[in-house]
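Support reply, case 0932

Customer input (verbatim):
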Amino acid sequence: MIYTMDATEFSNAIISAANKLVNNKTILNDLNVFPVPDGDTGSNMSMTVSAAASELIGRSFDSVGDVMSVVASASLRGARGNSGVILSQLFRGMSKHLKDCKIADANDIGKAFSEGVATAYRAVMKPVEGTMLSVSRDGAEGANAYLADNNEIVALLKATIQAAQKSLDMTPEILPALKAAGVVDSGGQGILYLLEGALTYLETGKIVEREDGEAMPAPKKGSAKVADSDIKFGYCTEFIIEKDNGAASSSLFSKNIAKKGDSMVVVDDETIIKVHIHTNNPGYVIEEALKLGALVNIKIDNMRYQHNELSASDAPAAPKEPPAPYGFAAVAAGEGMEDLFRDMGTNEVILGGQTMNPSTDDILEAVNKVNAETVFVLPNNKNIIMAAEQVDALTDKNVVVIPTRSIPEGISAILAFLPDATPEENKEAMTEAASFVKTGNVTYAVREFNLNGETLPEGKIIGLTGKNILAAGDDPAEVAKALLAGMVDEDSAIINVFYGEDVADSDAEALQAYIEETYTDCDVLVHSGKQPLYYYIVSVE
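Our regenerated output:
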């Protein structure tokens, strides 16, 4: 029977817990409710807890409080995805309670777990029952019920596991989506694995062994250099048109300049039009723009010259300039997506997205590279927002997270930025711009699913907005057409299509022709995003 734990025992229990979760991360990923290739809860929790465990291995500590402090700090920096951030907050709350403990008894551990649950709930804006939050809370309540009359640590952990397992088994009854998919909550199952791994060490004195060597590697940073000859259109041209006539449409303007370049983005508001294009003839683009109104904030960069400057690797580094008022860091996956954000003024692009959520530390590293006083962060994925929101507390810079949930939302947000506005005004304007964007995705099903009462097989192409599957078929372009039919309405003015690395240019061009013929009142812009997993990402504004 165990009544107290010293720092070494406590550290070993956490390492054992981490290894148990890592060994089962594939099972957690497979518990994904929706039939899309983004089941990454296991990977996110695995990498988060591995970041903490790696700081414990081979080290000795003077107190349990010291162990938990290291775990809290490392897990926060290594947190990936919502599940990873919630897990880091559980550890953070436990660290607060245990900070003065040289050794820990059952009461210390039980109360620390309760404090961890309270901290995690406070970190989530809209806590959802039937998730890892409620499983953790119910486990903590089971622990405290045991502590009313007992104080042995192994029995405490068993009581916690029993209560947490009962809660996990109820998650399908709380969340209909889990019941429909025939699964329990993946994050809650991850909490069970952690508790079970710790129990194994306490009962046997042996740390659960890692079966896979290491957790999933982090996304690779950086991108390959582009040869000067690969720059087809040399001038990055940006400006704002202050429209003479607010009712004037940018449709004809967009079609005219589209023939003169690529990487084009034209966003038409009531009073202004924001324009970005790569072209060899910026004069033509400006002449066409002047037909609609006066031009402001004109910026034309010679990309070939910039590339040659960057390629001169033997040149001495230039002195660092004073920080700019504003800078940008955005998350994106795919060479085309990365290029698009850089062309729009993004200083740092963090490679990531579905299945490869960057950690808080990855985002922090990018923010610290931006030579600016205020850095706007565009997560561009709902599962990265929480990790991004942890960064502000870790740097002296003013970090403003715009809660963008998709690449199209991120693009609209950055186009809404005004250099003369305050950070608060820009956050409001950028967030509002993102909220007007409807995003759809065309990908493939990783398991069988139900659509309109019919069960369809794994491997089918699906089109969805958010969590709603609107279309399915065998051809990505046909599914994209059906998806857009459910997204475009009488208020729609702009359709953006980003095609992925598995889509041929000719297929994308054929889809563009169809969309232009079908939705004649909308401006249609097609970009080579080269993103993985998703054949098409479409947006409607």
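We compared this against your earlier run and they match. Two observations from our side: The longest strand covers residues 293-302. The domain at 322-436 is CATH 3.40.50.510 (Rossmann fold). Please reopen the case if you see a mismatch on your end.
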